[in-house]
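WARN no homologs supplied; continuing
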Amino acid sequence: MSLRITLISMILIMISFLCAESIPDWVKKRPVKEGYYIGIGMSMKSSKNRDYLQIAQDNALKDLSSGIQVTVNSEVLSEVMEKSGIVKEEIESQIRTSTQAQLTGYELIDTYESKTEYWVYYDLSKPVYVRQMLDIRQKAMNLALDFYTKAKNSEKDGDITQAIRYYYQAIRPIEDYFGESLQTEYEGKSIYLGNEIYSSLQNTISKIQLAVDKKSWAAKIGLAVSPSPAVIARFLSKDNKIVYIQNLPLISILNKGELDFIPNSITDEKGIAQIRINKVRTEDNVQILKTAIDMPKLINADSSSVIFKAILKTMPVPEQMVYLSVSPLIICIQTNESMFDKPLAMPIIEPKVKETLAARGYHFSNSIKDADYIIKITANTREGSAIHPTPTNTMYIAFVDVNISLVSLAADAEIYKNALSNVKGINLDVPKAGIKAYENALEHVKDSILPELLEKLKN
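OK structure emitted
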């Protein structure tokens, strides 16, 4: 029995020894191979991880690319990092990811598979990698130089919008190489391409001016601003001539006040962009929009590139404040208040309406031609039946009907209407019952009609 146990133990030890021996050396210890980049990748095997083969291969390539030195020490990148707040590690991470995506020429040296793990071993000749990267970089530089040339030509032709687009397109191919010198020839001169594109773009944008031909635009609460504020985009050329920039997208944001407006606009052939303001919503005397070049829209900046976004942040963005001088709305109140078909010498509802509106900053005029809105008030009482609480005491009932409407003179339309019917008043005689009916109606006007009317004026 003991002999049998001994044999089984020896067999198990031998199996264990053989399994251990079958694990390759490169799995146990990372190899060092002179003149090569090494990539080792592993993935766990499980029923939930059916892509373990691809994951191991990706991890091996990621490991291989991590051994490739990344250069991030140019003047341009230093300026970009300082101005944008981006850190060096973010740039290095993007360049390594890009490098991994471009890797070719690597060789599969070996694989190893156990019950729970899958391993991949790649290597890449350093001279082969250098030749490949030089070729890829040169193609990127050629493409960037082509866009740079187009940008310069567009700028000479006065097409500033297109010039800016071309400058940004020139950055795209070489953004991963901005940490390198990128020395090349342009028009018979030696230039550092990344530096040259970056500085040319900055210089072009810095010569753009956004201007207005008015200090402020007249506006009224509740109304559209007409004529619309206009922003003029112009460029100062090398010979100090003013070029008006067309097809330039602008964006406006609210700086002060409350406005309904369309934020996006674009300059016409005269360099003018109209900012459409549909309604002024608050009584603030001065309201402000800040208008600037819409850079993301201009260059279609949908890129997830950390470097490209950082470069975009460092660029000067010309902007212009647009001021609105808001004046009160002028209202003409037309009232026809009667007591049993006879006009009242002193109206009862109209003074309360005027008092409420005046407290909100509205002004009044007796002339329709000076007004923005007309408020029409009609009211009349009628006699009801008498009641007799006691044999010697008689109380009289009166009813009042009130109609109030709001007419917009700009729209030439009635925009609000409300009515009160059969509002009752009771008193010792008929005239006093009529007055009481008016007083009760006035409470309804204050509580329900005036808030709605004020909201209509505002909206």
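The chain is about 40% helix and 35% strand.
OK
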